[in-house]
Write a structure and sequence with these properties.
- Keywords: Amino-acid transport, ATP-binding, Cell membrane, Membrane, Nucleotide-binding, Transport.
- By secondary structure, the protein is of the alpha/beta class.
- Helix content is about 40%, strand content about 25%.
- The chain has nine helices and ten strands.
- The structure holds adenosine-5'-diphosphate (ADP) and magnesium ion (MG).
């Protein structure tokens, strides 16, 4: 059984169909890069997997549990998959430690001492153990994004969904965030990441999925997809002819 099973998923906003029958299975420990033009449905797909959007048709299962559109199921699902966004969305009035503890204590009802121990461990993991008491605005963008990663990890998710998590960062801060992702990948974390970092996708991912107009247009191993794109659309996207 795959960790994430996406079967014939369709998603419409009003009369506009944005996902047009997506099939994708993600195995435990797989690191998948999702690439494609703006508007091709990449974010919508991740948001559907995380239950932030309800799907119009098809099915999504995470660790064998069907994603059904009711609050109990959605809550259970969101505990299984973590999501990190382009914007870090840290609470400015909470410390770094407070941010990483919050969903543990609120959503999971983890006792405070345990939540704090987990927060310290996860901040250690992203290289920010020493900034537990700092406030977000005292950190660089790269550090804030690493806090957001620690916050997601603190929920002990079975998979992490990353939506262009380096796109809002100044170029010199991108590498430190990618280094953390690379380490998570090496440790066996299942990762589904929308990214424009083609070199990173080539080096770190097991599989590349190219989305075009709401469909998985082409997919395969990075060495094949990048070196030998099959469709005109992917060739154009990669800038090869
Ligand atoms: P990508 O992440 O690949 O750039 P998105 O998934 O964000 O693409 O968007 C795919 C399409 O869905 C776009 O045409 C976008 O305008 C549309 N879309 C996304 N979210 C909404 C929404 N909440 N309401 C209406 N249209 C939306
Ligand atoms: Mg997007």
């Amino acid at each position: 059984m795959s960790l994430i099973e996406i079967t014939e998923v369709r998603k419409s906003f009003g009369t506009t169909e944005v996902l047009k029958g997506i099939n994708l299975n993600v195995e435990p420990g797989e690191v998948i890069a999702i690439i494609g033009k703006s508007g091709s449905g990449k974010s919508t797909l991740l948001r559907c997997i995380n239950g932030l959007e309800t799907i119009t048709d098809g099915s999504i299962a995470v660790a064998g549990a069907q994603l059904l559109d009711d609050e109990v199921h959605l809550k259970a699902l969101r505990l299984k998959v973590g999501m990190i966004f382009q914007q870090f969305n840290l609470f400015p009035h909470l410390t770094v430690g407070g941010n990483v503890m919050l969903s543990q204590t609120v959503v999971k009802k983890t006792p405070k001492a345990e939540a704090e121990a987990t927060a310290r461990k996860m901040l250690e993991r992203v290289g920010l153990g020493h900034r537990f008491d700092a406030y977000p605005d005292e950190l660089s963008g790269g550090q804030q994004q690493r806090v957001a990663i620690a916050r997601a990890l603190a929920m002990q998710p079975a998979a992490l969904l990353c939506d262009e998590i380096t796109s809002a960062l100044d170029p010199e801060l991108v590498a430190e965030v990618l280094a953390v992702v690379r380490e998570l990948a090496a440790e066996g974390m299942t990762l589904l990441m929308v990214t424009h970092e083609m070199k990173f996708a080539r080096d770190v991912c097991n599989r590349v999925v190219f989305m075009h107009q709401g469909r998985v247009h082409e997919a395969g191993r990075p060495e094949d997809v990048f070196a030998n794109p099959q469709t005109p659309e992917l060739k154009q996207f990669l800038g090869v002819s």
